[in-house]
């Protein structure tokens, strides 16, 4: 008897597999129940969505800032009135508590309000100085929409995070095609449907559903830019695919954020912030706290306060649970392996341990004195665990915080030196005496460096990210010295050289001290 499967049986299995791939089911991660069924978009349907977006892009760009602000304001009102309904969808697909779902929706609404109020000021045409050499010209710059923007969003904050790209791209005058995570397709559909109610005749925001193949199709489609949020490894694949068409990308990838606690910090506030930053959303936060470096003089006190707070919260489905399940079940093994590795290398679990991770939930784990080369320190855990290590001084804390490959966010708790320490951290964002506060400020840019990605969403930088700069000069009068003509004379060349020497030939007299002395003074000030 042959070990190979008969061809007709293989064909039937292939056909069944293809049919299964044509629909996507979303699940409640706490129970495994199906909460939604969606048709999967293939390359052809993705291209069709992009073509519809392209057809609406000229209208959306052409109606101007005021009309776009009115549309976004109406959408904001819809999101606000139906916040509870959207929170139900978020809760069903991610498992996070309703209150946490409402929090991320509320932050997205606040960003929408800022966009409507500030887009014209940031992007609108404004005059700039032409300089002395072209004083006979006027000069202006404005920021024009790219056209169609593709957005690939994550599952951990399925409203707030992708809206950082969607809303800012729309505010800049682009249309958007959005691929939500395969774990949270219902949230993406809900967002697109809600905006379609405001502007039923145009395709401003469309959702395409599927797995990695659908995301690949969006990368290869006729889009003008792609914004991606997800793992560093997937971000690299997205970049490579977009490079085929020279499509620019914004990448917001992983993080391994550190919180630094100085000896004069408010330890109660620091412990509360560390607990929230590490455990909220079951630790599934790219800008969450995964490492803490605390001054050895206050380390024991801080660890005690943090441990008390860690024991006071738990993951579950009961009314008292502050944490939901792990949305992506495969992440549970990552969390477990990081805890195991930390303990095997000599670290101690003062709250929880390997037993804190089961097949759906992960309970808070506090690890202390973990070697810096352990997985729990070097790799993104993305679960409700935190490593607390002692340092002898803040210079050591900064050095260890900056040692990793990531550079997304971070936090500093200090009575005197908070701002100074924050500036030394190699990260795109840092909060002083708080955690994650920068994400809630609409006027601040959001993004990282290193393996955490590049480009920015939020704020003026986020609006400009989805535009191109258009520079215009206009000659107002004939020049005294015409430099752009073949009739230029030797005397004019001499006059040009004389002008340059007068304008730029002298060395700067700033400070009236040699450069070496000024650098030494700055270093001395920092040491003090």
Automatic annotation (TrEMBL):
Residues 7-16 have a biased composition (Low complexity). Residues 1-23 are annotated as: Disordered. The keyword Oxidoreductase applies. Keywords: Oxidoreductase. Gene3D superfamilies: Aldehyde Dehydrogenase, Chain A, domain 1, Aldehyde Dehydrogenase, Chain A, domain 2. The keyword Transferase does not apply. One of its GO terms (biological process) is aldehyde metabolic process. Residues 19-472 form the Aldehyde dehydrogenase domain. GO terms for molecular function: oxidoreductase activity, acting on the aldehyde or oxo group of donors, NAD or NADP as acceptor. CDD domains: ALDH_DDALDH. The active site is at residues 252, 286. PANTHER family: ALDEHYDE DEHYDROGENASE-RELATED. Belongs to the aldehyde dehydrogenase family. This is Aldehyde dehydrogenase. It comes from Nocardioides marinisabuli. The lineage of its organism: Bacteria, Bacillati, Actinomycetota, Actinomycetes, Propionibacteriales.
